[in-house]
Amino acid sequence: MELYDILFWVLSAIAVSCALGVILSRNPVNSVLFLILTFFAISGHYVLMNAQFLAIVNIIVYAGAIMVLFLFVIMLMNLNADVEPQKGQLVQLAGVISGGILFLVVLASIKTAKAEIMDKTSTDIGLISNLGKVLFKEYVLPFEISSVLFLSAMIGAIVIGKKEEVKTSATAKMEHVSE
Amino acid sequence: MLLLQIDTALIIEKGLLITAILLGSLGIAMYATWGERKVAAIMQDRIGPNRAGPFGLLQPLADGLKLFFKEEIIPDRSTRLIFILGPSLAMLTATMTSAVIPWAPDYTTDSGHVFSFQVADINIGILFIFGVVSLGVYGVMLGGWASNNKFSLLSSIRAASQAISYELAMGISLIALLMMTESLSLRDIVQQQHGFWADNYFTWNFFKQPLGFIIFLTCAFAELNRAPFDLPECESELNMGYHQEYSSMKLGFYLFAEYVNLFISSVLVSTLYFGGYNFPFMDQVAANVHPMLYSIICLMVLMTKAVMVILFIMAVRWTLPRFRYDQLMKLGWKSLIPLALVNMLITGGVILWAINK
Lengths: 179, 357
What we know:
Chain A has about 180 residues and is mainly α. Helix content of chain A is about 80%, strand content about 0%. In chain A, helix 1 (about 5-25) packs antiparallel against helix 2 (about 30-50). Chain B is mainly α. Chain B has 14 helices and 4 strands. Chain B has helices spanning about 10-45, 60-70, 80-95, 125-135, 135-145, 150-180, 185-190, 205-210, 210-225, 235-240, 250-275, 280-290, 290-315, 325-355; strands at about 105-110, 115, 195-200, 200. The N and C termini of chain B lie far apart (about 60 Å). The interface of A and B includes residues 33, 57, 65, 69 and 128 of A.
């Protein structure tokens, strides 16, 4: 067993057990923390595949930004086990059935999938210069379109989040003055 | 059967280097607390710490001992594990950044062995630092939330939103720098700033990216939670802020992590914008002294630059008043980010039309 294999198995064990922790822990804050650990383990896998750029971007974007916002929302809502809403039996049954169907699909696809082993020495597609060239030469159109999609999502969030009251209170003050 | 194929010599070498860097940055952070009190005292026409040892030089040791021996209180209603995790994470992220900083040029021994004064030369050095900085907010956030105190929670939410807002401008100002250097590796960036003057212009990035430097430094202040951006610890509104419930060495770790961060970011500012370990006439020096001595001189040059930056940051703390929270957000989103974008566009234009004609 080489160092590579040992690292691979250790990281896989961490990733799987933390992913289980996400869905099994009762406290949502613990779930978020487990999810962050899962991202770290997956980043470790990227490093093993010599995709350092993907690894670090995974940490910056997911662990560093998105999970902070998740934590933000959960902290402000103050969720804990005592106030967890109790679901009806019908809803629970529906959850079990839909989850089971998804599990079947995943199982079927894994069973037929060919286990291709990555060549771990020669791949360097994840290094930043190669990734940049591929992204800005071959895939420039989908890249730009997805950035427009992000922009529209951002503008949409601002439009939804904008308060109407500011305007109404200002006009109310104006009316008050004119009276 | 060979179980492990590990280069033991490499591990010992890197282990020694990591230990030295860790101890060095902890020691400098320790004396930064003393320095801060002396700077404050000088600026306010006081004497400052002068009881413990000559010039009060043993004061940091006395403070550390006091924190160690204080009673440790974990609040009853806190989330115990996360409460302990908070300061540990703060300390961990503070010390992790030093891994990719090149402290001095490579030293080649007489037998031809190359000793590198950098723990890891990864080709995404700057992004690594950025990732660690973006994780730094977890220590504050988790600690503040786990304390189960509304002031702590408010403070940790402030800290998180401040950090996220200023990371954007910081990233964009760095993109302009990276467009000039065409490399993400800190070693390449330092080597490009070799000496002081080449091709009829300064080599240091400060002279190539003055606006980017100002934006980066401002964002560094905000990321460090230093005055004038120390709103998470704003005592007139939040008592003590996120570490209100912390006592003993856990409080000490929070305060100490701040000074470790201060030191590491000063080194980083020197590395990115002030040439790192480079200094004028370094080639002449390198030709005339022993290579080991040359490495030590380079290290000392980097340390001198870092200390200058630390002194500047301290002087700012005791000069400027604290921002109001809406002013902070306005500065970040409405001034720094557009400025950084304009800087990026100008840099791109100059590279396109003037340099790569």
